[in-house]
Specification:
Strands 1, 2, 3, 4 and 5 form a five-stranded antiparallel sheet that branches. The protein has twelve helices and five strands. The longest helix has 69 residues. It is of the alpha+beta class. Helix 6 packs antiparallel against helix 7 and helix 8 runs antiparallel to helix 10. Helices cover 67% and strands 8% of the residues.
């Protein structure tokens, strides 16, 4: 009699077991190991070059013109920025973060899984000795709460993508600043070579004059000291150029050696085109609404608003269904329970925190917007001042070049000697160095203005297509 009860109840239980196993095993994701190989990755990074064919396919996503010629005969800012957008390691981290938040958005959109409890009981003296049962616990999340949780996750994803765009602009700012410093060092080195040659001639002429008794030895000491100072400047410029090249390589995402042999093209360096006030005003207004950091602050406020709505919704009960089935010693039972929480405290603490969080997010947005306004205004003023400074330096250079021409003419006519001519050449070369320094500062101020506006104002970067879709599509997002 007891054996019959066991056999009968076991037969009833087998379909339940099969259903449970079927649910658990369907649509399973299998684990795949992906161990890090630091030595191999370090070797791969050290071997990176700018003429790799595979790099061209990646670059075409942000610069379709790359298909016309690869590698380019001359590398401009856009070419190197395109490489940076697909190879910069820090940008890759931001890209991975955007994909991680997208995965969280998928999680937030899923409906709660039911919890299942398997039960059994043995009654020794009962005709049907075994009790088998299965109970489910299923949370009924309200549509409004689910909508709010999905909205918060979507806002997090949006902000992660904005962070990716902001990081892309940071990479661009680092690259352009490094390339500008590199170009300045290259041009300064050429000018210092010319100045050093003229200064050596001056030293040689003064030695001859001292030997003939025409000048005092003190004059030679001053000239030799000036020559030593020029040589010191040449060493400093070389060091600055090497540092700029290293910084550019870091932004591009290649070892410094990969930039050694590339010809850099920046024809209007130090003389960026003037942008009219109306265009600057329009770009400034746009930046105050859509600059990545401003947009992220707006997104944070929207998320805080959604969290406040969710906290208010949690004042009300949330229901759980508890259906089940029991084979209770020969009797089939189908219980159906409903449970719910009782927020007797009115969820006042969470609501108060949410109100404060929304206010904080609003204040932060205003602070970020004010900072952006200040950045733009300061950058516009700085460029205007640097243009005036450069114009003054160029007037001084024009004057020095006129004196140099007069000295050349005077030497041919016999009115001046070679010493005076070399002196005029030195004055002109030093004036060129002053102009070069002013142009470097003017270019730096333009770079800062573009960064404040988050928009290139001129140059080859205008042909790039930079968006979150192009930045993430290469990584499968």
């Amino acid at each position: 009699m007891c054996m019959t009860g066991i056999h009968h109840s076991t037969a009833l239980w087998r379909p339940v077991q099969a259903a449970v196993l079927s649910v658990l095993c369907s649509a399973c994701v299998h684990y795949q190991a992906a161990p890090l190989e630091p030595q191999r990755s370090a070797q791969a990074f050290a071997a990176r070059q700018l003429d790799e064919p595979a790099l061209r396919e990646q670059i075409m996503q942000v610069m379709p013109d790359a298909a016309t010629e690869w590698p380019p005969r001359e590398w401009d800012r856009a070419d190197l920025l395109a490489v940076a957008l697909v190879q910069n390691p820090t940008l890759a981290v931001a890209n991975a973060q955007a994909r991680a938040t997208l995965a969280h958005e998928i999680t937030a959109g899923e409906r709660p899984n039911p919890a299942m409890t398997l039960q059994s009981e043995y009654a020794r003296h009962d005709p049907y000795a075994w009790l088998y049962g299965v109970a489910f616990n299923w949370l009924l999340r309200s549509p409004e709460r689910r909508r709010l949780e999905i909205s918060i996750a979507q806002l997090d994803t949006r902000n992660a993508r904005l962070e990716l765009m902001d990081q892309a602009w940071s990479v661009r700012h680092e690259l352009i600043a490094a390339l500008s410093d590199w170009e300045a060092a290259h041009r300064r080195a050429e000018l210092l070579d010319r100045l050093a040659t003229a200064q050596r001639r001056l030293v040689e002429f003064e030695r001859q004059r001292i030997a003939s008794g025409e000048d005092a030895p003190a004059d030679l000491i001053a000239s030799e000291h000036a020559l030593l100072d020029i040589e010191q400047q040449k060493a400093e410029v070389k060091s600055a150029g090497d540092a700029a090249r290293t910084a550019a390589a870091r932004a591009v995402g290649v070892p410094p050696e990969a930039l050694d042999a590339i010809p850099l093209s920046w024809p209007n360096w130090g003389d960026p085109p003037v942008v009219n006030d109306d265009e600057l005003h329009a770009l400034g207004e746009q930046a105050l609404l859509s600059r990545a950091d401003v947009a992220m602050a707006i997104g944070d406020y929207s998320a805080a608003e959604a969290k406040l709505q969710l906290a208010v919704a949690r004042q009300y009960p949330e229901y759980e269904l508890n259906p089940g089935f029991y084979w209770d010693h020969g009797i089939a039972k189908f219980p159906f329970d409903v449970s719910f929480d009782l927020p007797l405290n009115g969820n006042k603490g969470e609501i108060a925190e949410a109100f404060a969080g929304r206010d904080l997010a609003g204040q932060r947005m205003l602070a970020v917007q004010a900072a952006a306004y200040g950045d733009i205004a300061a950058a516009k003023r700085a460029e205007r001042i640097e243009r005036e400074t450069t114009a003054a330096a160029e007037r001084q250079l024009d004057s020095a070049r006129r004196l140099e021409k007069q000295a050349d003419l005077g030497l041919r006519l016999g009115a001046v000697d070679s010493l005076e001519q070399v002196g005029a050449q030195i004055i002109a070369a030093r004036a060129e160095l002053v102009v070069l320094q002013s142009r470097a500062q003017l270019q730096a101020s333009r770079n800062v203005l573009e960064d404040a506006l988050r928009a290139p104002l001129s140059g080859p970067e205008l042909k790039l297509s930079i968006s979150t879709s192009t930045l993430t599509s290469r990584s499968g997002t």
